[in-house]
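Appendix B. Raw example, untouched.
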Amino acid sequence: MSTYNLPTLLKLALEAMLRKDAIDFSDLENLPTMLFPPLLIEAFKSRCTQMLKAMVAAWPFSYLPVGPLLKTAGVEMMQAVLGGIDILVIQNVHPRKKLQVLDLRDVHQDFWDAWAGREDEACSADTLRKKQVPESHPTYAPTKLLQVVTNLSLIFPLKEDQKCLLQWAQKNSESLQLICPKIKICVFPLEITKEVFNIFQPIYIEELEICSHEVVTNLRFFPHYLDPISNITRSNLNQIHFQGNDVNTVTDVRRCAAKFFSQFSKLNHLQSLSLNGNHISYNNMKILFRFLKNPLESFSMTLFHLSTSELDHLSKCQSLYQLKQLHFNDIEFTESCFKSLRILLENVSKTLQSLHFEHCRMKDSQLKVLLPALSQCSQLNSIIFNGNYFSTPVLKDLLQCMASLSNLTVEVYPAPKECYDPWHYVVVESFTQLCPQLVQVLMAKRQPKTIMFVTANCPNCWGCCVYDTKTSLCHCWQ
């Protein structure tokens, strides 16, 4: 024993197991539980499908987060994992079986990283015993059935591993509890979408993303399935619009939008709403917010042109009055809408923790309108303003407002306009001189935790320069 340390013995034992032409359950019956994770990793690395199948069937813990290992493994390894579940459920051959949840999502990568380690890493028996399979696995309604958890992104055509999973799930829908907490529906045949909702119980869906130009086609589908998915807490509407063969006039569009958005009245637990794309008009937003039942905690908008009337409606929408996160990304605000935006910030000032204005092309005069409201947001811990055009004096005004907000931990600001030449290239000397001066405005009142000043993308390399107590330049300046 003195000749070998424990990692060497472990490596030799794993190699011996993998060299076997066939694996039998008797080989795993007396295997110490601490050897299962590293042996499973080696089975993936060596693409030993028979070993992998047996390992899954004999897994001695209640939870198996195999998703990170499947990311680049290919369809054969997915088939082996599912084959192990078939052995466990159908044949029920292993007396030590304990597995309750097979998690196919990309979670707990840190656990597998810890077990993989480095070959030269010092390792003791005590260290191995401390490495535990994560116990913070999802828990749902009590059931005797083994639970299989996965996220689905329905984008046509499906990948081979997705086809494999869906075919297997359809075959085993009666003998397993199939759970999909997060589902994304893109351009996808309606009949297959219906079949997926019949296989994976909609009641367990927590996050729904719709990214489709075929909302009109799906109008008969959503009312039927939104009833049982009333437990969703997050919804993302991405690039949807209401075009179709029977939609020819503005009245038709409003009718379809009202029919679609009225389904959101069934989402009693919705906390987060994200709107992406300018196909959702002012009238559509009014309809949507009218049907929301509960106050939102998070609201984000991306790629919109917002008018004064739209911002005025948002500022009066009581569903937004308890927001913790308010994010605007690539939004074009009209000049006259900032008074309504200030009112919105005032309404959420007591609860707001994260505020993003990214790539909104805001100017000095527009920011000045918001400064009084920003200074009231005492709960803010994250603020992001990159992608806007502010001068050094106005940035100093902004920083003086932020200096009184003691909860801020992350701050991202645009580099001042004076850092650019007339052709929009960064003047490095100005950048390296002005940014430290701006930091001093904050440091006069408090010590910032994470603070960055970011330039616009370079016209040549599309990188950017960043100052975060030290200067990092784009590729053109390196």
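End of appendix B.
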